[in-house]
Amino acid sequence: MSRVGKKPITIPDNTKILFKNRVITVQGKNGTLERPIHPAVNLKIENGTISLSIDKEDRISRSLHGLTRSLIANMVSGVNEGFERRLEINGIGYRAAMQGNSIVLNLGYSHPINFDLPDGISASVEKNNVIKLFSIDKEKLGLVSAAIRRLRPPEPYKGKGIKYAEERIRKKAGKTGTK
């Protein structure tokens, strides 16, 4: 039995949860999220908590038990508080700017890159080199931030590129000149 899956999820006030036809819908002050639930996982909503259980003790059911609990917990916290991700741009001449619902990135290429934000993701740019992304869906936020980082990943010699704010870049020594 999964240790993560056994923990109940507390439902905050002013959060509505509906479980119908194997689809859970979580509605809070920031919005609404939906997710289908695998048939191997059983869901019970009572007394302000959500508890999950599984019927069989096979490998797939045990792994889905913890995964489903984490996904539902992320949905509940997302519709109430939301998630934020910060990206930092390092490099001479590298910068970002908001233009409508897209981010214009100058990353040392011969042309600026327009990155269109999908629905449900909002962004702001601070000091031309810090991008703050906000969403209620943690999965979508991670995918968008990874796609932005992939445009110019940090290189190990000077550290130029786009990195997550909490990420540490291990720099290499580079060539030594011999005379």
Overview of this protein structure:
- The chain folds into two domains: 3-80, Ribosomal protein L6 (Outer Surface Protein A, domain 3); 83-164, Outer Surface Protein A, domain 3 (Alpha-Beta Complex).
- It has a four-stranded antiparallel β-sheet with strand order 11-12-7-13, covered by helices on one side. A three-stranded antiparallel β-sheet has the order 1-6-5. It has a three-stranded antiparallel β-sheet with strand order 2-3-4, with helices on one face.
- Helices cover 22% and strands 37% of the residues.
- The chain is of the alpha+beta class.
- The N and C termini lie far apart (65 Å).
In terms of per-residue confidence, which ranges show pLDDT below 50 for 5 or more consecutive residues? none
Radius of gyration: 21 Å
Tell me what portion of residues adopts beta-strand conformation.
35-45%
What top-tier CATH class of the largest domain fits best? Alpha Beta
Form type: elongated
State the CATH topology of the largest domain: Outer Surface Protein A, domain 3
The total tally of domains equals 2
Query: Numbering strands along the chain, what is their spatial order in the largest sheet?
Result: 11-12-7-13
Overall CATH architecture of the largest domain: Alpha-Beta Complex
Structural class: alpha+beta
User: How many helical elements?
Assistant: 3
- Can you tell me the CATH superfamily of the largest domain? Ribosomal protein L6
